[in-house]
Amino acid sequence: MTRSGFVSLIGKPNAGKSTLMNYIVGMKIAITSAKPQTTRNRIETVYTDENGQIIFLDTPGIHKAKNRLGQYMDKVAFQASKDVDIVVWLVEPTTRISQNEEMIAENLKNTDKPVFLVINKIDTVKPAVILEVIETYKKLLDFSEIIPVSALKGTNVDDLKETIFKYLPEGPLYFDPDTVTDQPERQIVAELIREKALFDLDDEIPHGIAVVVEKMHERKRRGQEDQSSYSKEEKPEKPDTGYLDDSTVVDINAVIVCERESHKGIIIGKHGSMLKKIGSEARKDIEDLLGCRVNLKLWVKVRDKWRDSDIMMKNFGYDMKEVRIDEK
Ligand code: GDP
Ligand code: MG
After folding, report:
1. C-alpha separations of 276 from 24, 137, 193, 197, 298 in Å
2. Which pLDDT value is given to residue 183?
3. Closest CA to 278 of 208, 214, 194
4. What is the pLDDT of residue 295?
5. Which residues of the chain carry a pLDDT beneath 50?
6. Among candidate residues 156, 154, 153, the one with its CA nearest the CA of residue 116
7. Radius of gyration of the chain (CA)
8. Ligand closest to the CA atom of residue 23
9. Which of 32, 43, 58, 73 to mutate to test the pocket of ligand 1 (most atoms within 8 A of CB)?
10. Three-state secondary structure along the chain?
11. Which residues face 73 on adjacent strands?
C-alpha cells in the first residue's frame, strides 16, 4: 500500500521553501536565493520513497501585491491551499508576527485541510526561542502539527516527511518515481540564469528582470558521434571528465530582459564582464542539472514596464489563465 497526495508549501519569501525542497529531493531543482521572489512560478517537486509519493507545490511567497505581478503571485499562493491534502506553512524562527502572518493565519482558518506549522532555520536560534515561537504561533491558529526544522542542515526533515505521509490518503504514485519536478527544463534553466543574475547584480537592479530561453538544442560533440553505436559491453572506457555524458553538448541561447536602458549597461558590465560572470556561473549549474557540457550564450534586451503588462507576462510564461480564482 502506498500513500500519496499534494502538499502546498506556503510562506513568506526567504522562509526557506526552496531550500527545503532542495534538501528533500537532493537536487538543485527549486531555486534558492537570498533575495525574495526568486521562485516565480509554482514549482511541483515530487518526492517518492517506499511509503509513497508526496507532491509539493512550492508556491511563491505570499506578500502584499505591489503591482500586477505581485497580485498574480498572491493568487497562485492562495490557490495552492485549495485542492491539496496538507498545507505546510514555513516560518522564520521569530516571535515577531507581522500583518502578513496574521493574514495567512486568517486565511488558513477557513481550510478544512490539516495545517502544519514548520518553524525553519532552527540552527540559527537557541532552543528556548523555538519554544517561544511555538507559543506565539499557537495563539494564531490551531495547527495539526508543529515541527521545527533546519532546511539547510536537514534537521528534523525526515520527521516532517514521515508526518506528512501519516496524513496522506492511500493512493497511487501519480508521477514516475524518477521524477523530481514537472517543470520543463527550459524553465528551470531560465530560473538558474535569473538566480545568478539577481545574486551578482546585488541591489543594483531590483526584481525587474526576466530570463527567456530562446533556444535549447542538444548535439553530439565532434569526434564523439560514433560512441553511441557501440554496444554497452564494447563501449570504450570514458575519460573521466566529470560529465555524466561527455559526448553531448547542449547549446543554449537566453535573453535577460530588463526594464531600463540604464539597467542594460549594468547587466552587461564593463567590457561585458558582468554578463560573462553571470553566464559562467549559470553554465556550471546548468551543466550539473543536465549532466553534460553546456554552451551558453546570453543577451540583454530592454522592455518597458513588462511587470505591469498582461501581454508581457504571457510572453514570460506567467499565463493568467492558469490561475483559477473563485470570485466571490
Ligand atoms: P524561499 O524564498 O522561501 O524559497 O527561501 P530560500 O529557500 O530561497 O531561502 C532563503 C535564504 O534562507 C537562503 O539564503 C537560504 O540559504 C536560507 N535558509 C533557508 N533555510 C535555512 C535554514 O534552515 N537555516 C539557515 N541558517 N538558513 C536557511
Ligand atoms: Mg524560493
Report:
1. 32, 46, 12, 11, 8
2. 60
3. 194
4. 94
5. 27-42, 60-69, 72-73, 76, 226-240, 306-328
6. 156
7. 22
8. 1
9. 32
10. CCEEEEEEEECCCCCCHHHHHHHHHCCCCCCCCCCCCCCCCCEEEEEEECCEEEEEEECCCCCCCCCHHHHHHHHHHHHCCCCCCEEEEEECCCCCCCHHHHHHHHHHCCCCCCEEEEECCHHHCCHHHHHHHHHHHHCCCCCCEEEECECCCCECHHHHHHHHHHHCCECCCCCCCCCCECCCHHHHHHHHHHHHHHHHHCCCCCCCCEEEEEEEEEEECCCCHHHHHCCCCCCCCCCCCCCCEEEEEEEEEEEEEECCHHHHHHHHCHHHHHHHHHHHHHHHHHHHHHCEEEEEEEEEEECCCHHHCHHHHHHCCCCHHHCCCCCC
11. none
Backbone angles phi, psi at 271, to 5 degrees: 50, 30
pTM for the whole thing? 0.61
Return the bridge partners of 101, or none.
Answer: none
Q: Does ligand 1 have an atom closer than 6 angstroms to the CB of 61?
A: yes
Amino acid at 34: A
Q: Minimal CA–CA distance to 77: which of 61, 56, 53?
A: 61
Degrees (nearest 5) of the Cα angle 291, 295, 296?
105
Nearest CA to ligand 1 atom 20: 16
- Contact partners, residue 57, CB within 8 Å, separation at least 6: 6, 7, 8, 9, 42, 43, 44, 80, 84
Task: Compute how many other C-beta atoms are within 10 angstroms of the C-beta atom of residue 47.
Answer: 22
And the C-alpha cell for 324?
483559477
Rounded distance from Cα 254 to ligand 1 centre (Å) = 27
